[in-house]
Amino acid sequence: MNFNTTVKGSLLEGFYPAGWDMERIEECCALSGEKALLRESFWNEKFMPFTCENVGDFDIFMGHEIAFEIKKAKDNGQRIVLICPVGPMGMYRWAVYFLREWNINCGHVWCFNMDEWSDGDGNTLASDHPAGFENAMNGALYAPLGDLTVPHEQRNFATKENLPLYAEKITQLKKEGARLVLIYGIGRVMHIAFWEPHFAAEFASLEEWKAQTHRIGAKLHPMTIEQNALTSFKSRTTLVPCRANTIGPGLFLQADYAIGGCDGVFGRGMQWQGLSVMNTLHYGPDMWIPSTFVPTLPGKLFILKELTLPLNPDVN
Q1: Number of H helices, E strands in the chain
Q2: Staple partner for 156: which of 95, 101, 112, 128, CB 3.0–4.6 Å?
Q3: pLDDT over 90 for what percent of the chain?
Q4: CATH assignment of 44-308, given 1.10.287.80, 3.40.190.10, 3.40.50.1360, 3.40.50.300?
């Protein structure tokens, strides 16, 4: 029995994004285990997923990849633009470690936070708010780098004033020879940044969807809110903002290289990200599932091995 046939008439009717092909999603989930990392025809020839045995390895590998991109740009006399997430986060500690070990001054680095919590008008949390992404980046990356840090004027946060300027700033930096590196996680509803799947309903074509550079006060999907309640707000759904400012595919699909990370494991056999990983890798590019475009970009996606194991029910 396919229990998805029982959605009609239930409280979940109209809850899932309208463009999701549930049978196709299930087919992707069945590719877990030995078939989890089999290459697909739509993958970029320079895209590669890597499994990590544990969170410690995950943080080190991803942090090294970020630091090495910064170092390579420095060695080549090139500017580098980083689109930065707040989640995952553990990799920043190791990026700092390697950059300090190699004595890499980050004066050639421009950073653009991909999103930030907001209200409906795009007003964001104070820069020092404990739940704010600006505060998180200052604590995880900029302050620990010390005198090697990214200059203040080269740090960009997704405020309603600055986010609309991202596209122009990044375009100019690329014209000047900068390399654009996307760093990302993948959401429960398979978003990149807070670019949610239900936004696809607003666009007449894939080309129109791909042209969107940002959104102010974006309405978040309930699954996104609940994911963040569990992972960032100690289960307090009432504290999670329902909106955010976010970049769109018009920016993240411009990346010259992409560094991704999926570490959504709770322990004791519980996790939230396996479905998201399997569909990112195998569903095929579709604007109703934004993360499906990740494999079309050159780069590496670091995945906790547990997320690639068979996604079977377990009530033991």
Answers
A1: 9, 12
A2: 112
A3: 93
A4: 3.40.50.1360
